[in-house]
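Re: folding output
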Amino acid sequence: MKAVREKKRVTRRQVQSITGLGESQSKVLLNRLIKMGLLKRVGKGRSTEYELNE
């Protein structure tokens, strides 16, 4: 969450790099944060980014 606050938007790959999680685990994490209402998905496919849901 700190990275999202600092950068405004992050990609799944950035989340992987920051957390050390693999592709599947980072997708699960991001989807959980979306379901909790903390993040929202912006874009589709390879250009998908995630930002705080304010």
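--- second protein (sequence, then structure) ---
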Amino acid sequence: MRRQAGLGNRQIGEHLFISAKTAGVHVSNILAKPMATTRLEAVARTHRTHLFDQK
């Protein structure tokens, strides 16, 4: 998934076909891990590790 900085839970949810609340829970869970403290940092780390690259 290509993500733009500043995308809100509603937009994330629409893209993934989940509710905004569920998207928010996932974002919170990601930010609770020591790998990232902000959404932008989480996205940057995901890009660096090629986590969501399509094969």
